[in-house]
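Please decode residue identities from the backbone states below.
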């Protein structure tokens, strides 16, 4: 019963997010708060604990160990790419703290809601992680940089979440890679990391 309810939840929230990105943010901006409220209500329906949602201190150290090397490798590549052509833009990384908050919110939705529900539905961590990556990529359409990055990153971070049950290490990695992407690659490629209709502006 709860598995089928989770299917409905995932579809409803996914459609709601896509609708907000492409239309409702312009016509009904408060819809985002309604969507967040719906997600929170589902936590009570499923009896999710704070630990299961990724809050608290447990799992932080383990999570940092898991994401440290991949994050350093990707960040290093991006820094090397950025130095010859976009070094002057590195000052923009001063906003990393604000971006961390946004990254944490995204990981909250991606892992605490989608990740947990997909694991309940599929009962296979690997398949659930791949599907979660696909969902993460889908909401970043049509950005040609973010779609592949969020697909692979979404998969990896979801597997890390299933192992550690902590959102903070995931948000740290997300914030670092996202910030570096914005300065390492030409704006003409990623359009300021915008998605949906904003990408075309």
């Amino acid at each position: 019963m709860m598995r089928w309810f989770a299917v409905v939840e995932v579809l409803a929230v996914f459609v709601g997010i896509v609708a907000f990105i492409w239309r409702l943010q312009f016509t009904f901006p408060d819809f985002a708060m309604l969507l967040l409220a719906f997600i929170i209500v589902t936590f009570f329906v499923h009896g999710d604990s704070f630990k299961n949602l990724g809050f608290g201190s447990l799992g932080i150290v383990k999570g940092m160990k898991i994401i440290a090397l991949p994050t350093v490798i990707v960040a290093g590549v991006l820094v090397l790419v950025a130095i010859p052509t976009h070094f002057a833009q590195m000052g923009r990384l001063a906003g990393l703290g604000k971006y961390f908050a946004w990254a944490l919110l995204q990981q909250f939705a991606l892992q605490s809601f989608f990740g947990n529900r997909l694991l309940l539905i599929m009962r296979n961590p690997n398949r659930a992680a791949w599907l979660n990556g696909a969902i993460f990529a889908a909401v970043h359409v049509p950005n040609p940089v973010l779609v592949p990055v969020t697909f692979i990153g979404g998969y990896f971070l979801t597997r890390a979440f299933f192992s550690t049950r902590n959102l903070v290490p995931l948000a740290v990695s997300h914030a670092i890679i996202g910030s570096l992407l914005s300065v390492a690659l030409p704006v003409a490629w990623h359009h300021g990391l915008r998605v949906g209709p904003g990408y075309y502006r």
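Observation: The longest helix spans residues 60-86.
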